[in-house]
Structure formats: C-alpha cells, structure tokens
TrEMBL record:
Record's keyword annotation contains Coiled coil: no
Residues in the signal sequence: 1-20
Organism in which the protein naturally occurs: Heracleum sosnowskyi
Similarity comment text for this entry: Belongs to the germin family.
Cell compartment(s), UniProt: Secreted, Extracellular space, Apoplast
Keywords: Apoplast, Disulfide bond, Manganese, Metal-binding, Secreted, Signal
A cellular component term, taken from the record's GO annotations: apoplast
Name this polypeptide is given: Germin-like protein
Positions that bind Mn(2+): H107, H109, E114, H155
Amino acid sequence: MVKMIVLVGLLALSFCVAMAADHSPLQDFCVAQSNSQVLLNGLACKNPSMVQASDFSFSGLHLSGNTSNAVGSRVTPVATTQIPGLNTLGISLVRIDYAPWGINPPHTHPRATEILTVIEGSLEVGFVTSNPDNRLISKILHKGDVFVFPIGLIHYQRNVGKGNAMAVAGLSSQNPGVITIANAVFGSEAAISSDILAKAFQVDRRVVSSIRSKF
C-alpha cells in the first residue's frame, strides 16, 4: 500500500513537472542583473533594495516596426532584456508589424504557448500538429480576434488585408525562444549537409544550394 502511494505521488509530481513552463518564483520579484557572471536557469537577481519602477516598465510599443525586409514583418519583443523585472515571472510580450502580404514565417517557440490578438488589419494564422498527422489548423483573423499557438508547434501569420497589419502576442515564458524553420535548416552554423537536406526535402542538391544562398 505504501509503495502504491509513493508511486502515485511520483507520477503526480512528474505530471506537474511535465506540465510546468517556467518555474514559479519564490519571492515577490527577481529583477534581472544583466552584468552578473552567475549562470542559472534564468538571470541572477538584483539587490531588492536597488530596484526601481523603471525595472518593471518599457516604452515604445506604440511605434511601428520596420517591415522593409525579405519577409515583410517585424517582431518587437518585450522580454527580460527590455523589462528586467520579468525575470522568473514566466511571461513575455511581442508586437508584430506586417507589410501588405508580409509574413511572420513558420517558426516555433520551444518554451512557450502564444496567444495572439489582432490590433489592426486581417491575418491568416495557422499551426501544424505533430507527427504523424501534421494537420494544418488555420483561420482568418480580423481586428479584435484572438488565436492560440500551442507550445512547440510550428506556426505562422500572413497579412491578407489591403494595408498594414499589427498584432500583439503574449507568451508563457520570460524567454520563449524562437526557431525560424527556414533559417535553422538552411542557415545553420555549421551547415547541415546538402545530401541530408536534399533527401529530407526530396529535391536536387542544386535546389538546396539555391535556397541556402539566400540565408
């Protein structure tokens, strides 16, 4: 009976750990000390007596991002780099600007679920479920609409309106990370072998070389 209770307890604990995102804070706040040499899962804490209101604020999210680039979008992050007071709090924010027909290309956030709200314009959004189904779940969003991208899944947005578009998204990590699929596969340092990519994508090596030259 005791063994059964212990087993159930361990299973419950492992379930909680598996479901957790960032660790829960053990104090009111832990303002990031950017110049610290201490390495840990997060950033070292500033002395609480030295904390100021500026450690918890950021200005400039009303400014449009420059979308004059190859994909026609710009992400403006608000994470611990911009607000040191976010350290250990398990949340961050981005503003995303889109030129007409601009995209936020397929990418993943390995440490966060994302909830996106369209502020201006219309967006096609979607994510792909994991193997083996690889099902695309997509929708056209308009001003005021909200959509969720589950943690770790490949997702994208595209401006399908006539003018510029803008969205704001919250992420369930102070450091959600981002892996842009094309950049990671074709622009890695060092390069993945062209033979591997040609076989994976079922294309000629010359196609791989042509794509890689753009990254």
